[in-house]
Amino acid sequence: MDLEEAIKSRRTIRRFQDRPVPTDLLLKAVSLACWAPNPGNGQAWRFFVVKERHLLQRLADALQAKFDLIASWPEAARFGEAVEAFRRSAASPLRSAPAVVAVAYGPYASLADRILAERGEADPEAARMAASRRRADTRAETVAGAVSLLLLALHSLGLGGCCLGGAMLAKGEAEAILGVPDGFEIFALVPVGYPAESPEPGARKPQDEVVHLFE
After folding, report:
1. Other Cβ atoms within 10 Å of 178 Cβ, number
2. What are the 10-residue block averages of pLDDT along the chain, 215 residues in total?
3. Which of 31, 32, 36, 52 sits 20 to 30 Å CA-CA off 115?
4. What is d(CA 95, CA 51) in angstroms, rounded to the nearest whole number?
């Protein structure tokens, strides 16, 4: 498929067939994800490709425990039935997926970051710029690019996946389960498998509503 077709036909897949995924396909998708833009071409990412069933279950259990905890808080009661649906579906992609790709990233500080750190918080303008940088973390941006390419690559290979944002609730547990090296942090968990669903495409907003053109 060409690029436009791949982009427009890709879907978020959360339900998977009970069918193993060949390791060579997973590694091919990861190798393509490694072509994502990254700061200074440092490629300070790590991909943890998990097919071992007991590790997948441990990841799912760790995430489920966090969702159960959140659902038990009195503050959750005001959200009604949505909380129970949230709790039930929390870890289901991890439980049904035959594989998961965890994406981690290592330390990174740009030249601007290093100078801002030296300048310190005493300078209000330096503090403002440093705070803006923290809100748009370069490492998270880089991982997002890699995950986008990963999902497109998986789709082109006949596989499906999704990026579990909620998985970061169990970030520390996931890092311990997978033995993530010191200095690296997991930013994304991507369950992968052969799709067991065919979601309809979600409507996209009109271009003139989301694009501000200056020419």
Report:
1. 19
2. 91 96 98 95 95 96 94 92 87 94 93 93 94 88 95 97 90 97 95 95 92 95
3. 36
4. 12
Dihedral, CA of residue 24, residue 26, residue 31 and residue 32, to nearest 10:
120
The number of beta carbons lying within 10 Å of the beta carbon of residue 28 is 15
**d(Cα 180, Cα 103) in Å, to the nearest integer?**
10
Q: What is the CATH number of domain 3-51+97-197?
A: 3.40.109.10
Looking at the DSSP bridge assignments, the partners of residue 100 are 50, 191
Q: How is the chain split into domains, by residue range?
A: 3-51+97-197
Beta-bridge partners for 38: none
